[in-house]
Amino acid sequence: MEPTVCPWCQSEIVWDxxxxxxxxxxxxxxxxxxxxxxxxxxxxEDEETxxxxxxxxxxxxxxxxxxxxxxxxxxxxxxxGSDTENLSSLRTVDKYGEDHDLxxxxxxxxxxxxxxxxxxxxxxCREYMLHAGTQRVTEEGxxxxxxxxxxxxxxxxxxxMNVYVCPGCFQVQYNLAEDDRLRLIRSxxxxxx
Length: 193
What we know:
Layout: E1 4-5, E2 12-13, H1 51-66, H2 70-80, H3 102-115, E3 130-137, E4 146-147, E5 152-153, E6 159-165, E7 172-176, H4 178-192
């Protein structure tokens, strides 16, 4: 059987001869037959394009040009919100492009990301997040949950959290610092035994 190349992650997929090809990529879990390219021309004289005009243009052409079914439209609405909200609205940084050199900003972001050990993805816009620092959580600002199985708190303060900021939409996320992850694992294993 001839290998397939995933249009999303560019991975070469060699299918099992007995099972045959599937509808999704085993590497990135994206739909293989649903790959579409969306081309929007911006040849208008006026720079301020009304979002309603753009929606009407897309609605007129989506079924013919893009092959988007009603089910796919509903799924996109479920994922991205209302009809009027579009993907570019998730990248808040774009609104600062007139006053700042966003190309230099993107280069700096890439350089910082290259130095990071962990590079989580933003839950909101899927950009890679910058490690902004560590925040200490003390008993004063934290009420631990008590698990009956453990007969005590799941996570006992003080502990540290890694703070990540998204360079695209400026959302902030936290995760447990490495030492405290290990402490939590050991604590749960000991309590279980």
